[in-house]
Design a protein that fits this description.
The protein is elongated, with a radius of gyration of 21 Å. It contains four helices and 17 strands. By secondary structure, the chain is mainly β. The longest helix is centred in the N-terminal third of the chain and has 8 residues. A hairpin with a 7-residue loop joins strand 10 and strand 11. Among the domains are: 33 residues, no CATH class; 110 residues, Glucose Permease (Domain IIA) (Distorted Sandwich), CATH 2.70.70.10.
Length: 325
Amino acid sequence: MTANILSEVEPEMRVTSLICLIAVVSASLAACASGPREPARVDYRSFGNGSNTPSSSASSSSRSPQRGTMNCGSGYTVRTNDTLSEIAERCGVSMSDLASTNGLSAPYTLRVGQTVAMPRPPVHVVQRGENLYRIGLRYGVPFQQLASHNGLRAPYEIEIGQQIRLPHGAQVASTTSGGSSRAPTSRLTNDRHTPPPAEAGAPSFDWPIRGQVLSSFGRRPNGERNDGINIEAATGAEVRAAAPGQVVYAGSELAGYGQLVLVRHSGGFVTAYAHNSRLLVREGDQISRGQIIAQAGATGTVDRPQVHFEIRSGVNPVDPMSYLR
């Protein structure tokens, strides 16, 4: 099944092992910046660097390490002059969670040698149709960061029922679609529906390619969800940018999408173009409306040439049919 894509992506996405796909996907999407092309960076929204990196030089023992640079395991032993806020910074957890876990209240008095227990990290149980990218979008965490946090390498394959550890402080992002998002399905259908009107003041987008809509936006009878539309295409056909913007990801590290391009536009919108046979742009390129960015194909998890196209407002998928002109 086709993976669902996108969110607000920042150019910072890079990948380190691709774990970072770019941290788009790449940096974490950036978080992955150290890896193969990460799927964007992590901040997704930043696609930036999702994982914390210790400072290049060790700090003097009197100075606190950077946030999250210490692996505190299940607990931390208090040292002279330690404060709860400093321990929270070092261990990469919130002070409120740390205080709650240890039954502490202001002024948070600690004693040398005391063991401060670490909050139990939250987890997400993988559901049918989910992939690491979509889980990251749901919690506002770059997928590269999730990959690094869970020791996963590209193509970041996960299984139904698998527990994905989330960074402390991760929160479910609100979505307009309700419920958990599902990846687009490769089961092609010809359902017709009336799309909701585009939000007031929203930009218009051109069709990336002309062809029959094989699979429309929304939930399917089998419970799966398509966060975009799948458009029939001939292999090698020109795929064009739906609106002017900047390429924040161009690669094939994200399982299920094949050769994929993500473009960020004004107003917080992002478009995705998947299953291409060849990419004609690179990350960071500024592109114009109608510019040829790829050639259509059948890469990824589809069995016939097509373009999987998504439009997202922030991290929320919207029906492309409401915006296409």
